[in-house]
Design brief:
InterPro entries: DUF1398, YdfO-like_sf. Helix 1 runs antiparallel to helix 2 and helix 3 runs antiparallel to helix 4. This protein has one domain: 2-Layer Sandwich (YdfO-like fold). The protein is globular, with a radius of gyration of 14 Å. By secondary structure, the protein is α+β, with helices and mostly antiparallel strands. 22% of the residues are buried.
């Protein structure tokens, strides 16, 4: 089974959103089936076979989340990150400012679903390969 050290080693290779497809493939090769990341402090829960989980604790101080979801701001921030224009910390701050609470990566379906502060799914996209 994968360890938190394995996940951190894969994540250390990511410099921008442009590196994300390779990161996803690295996680799949480790046996990660899905993960959930919370914008407020960056903690994530990684899930493998048999409900095996690894908790990655908070990675930064708590961000203040906007009370409402702003689609245009989030979509602009996401596209900028995917182009490689922003680092992970900037993307997380942009998510918080746009009212994005968390995202869930399904590595079997290769989808990423973003949720607002009210728990509504606001965007689901296919992960590029």
């Amino acid at each position: 089974m994968f360890t938190l050290s394995d996940i951190k080693a894969a994540h250390a290779k990511v410099k921008s959103g442009a590196d994300f497809p390779t990161y996803v493939q690295d996680l799949i090769s480790l046996g990660v089936l899905s993960y959930e990341t919370f914008v407020v402090d960056g903690h994530s829960i990684y899930v493998g076979a048999g409900n095996y989980t690894q908790l990655d604790p908070a990675t930064y101080a708590g961000l203040a989340l906007s009370d409402s979801y702003t689609a245009n701001a989030f979509h602009s921030a996401l596209k900028a990150h995917q182009r490689g224009d922003t680092d992970y910390a900037t993307f997380c701050a942009d998510c918080a400012n746009s009212g994005v609470y968390k995202w869930i990566m399904d590595l079997q379906a290769l989808t990423c679903t973003y949720y607002d502060v009210n728990g509504n799914d606001v965007l689901m996209e296919k992960v590029p390969q």
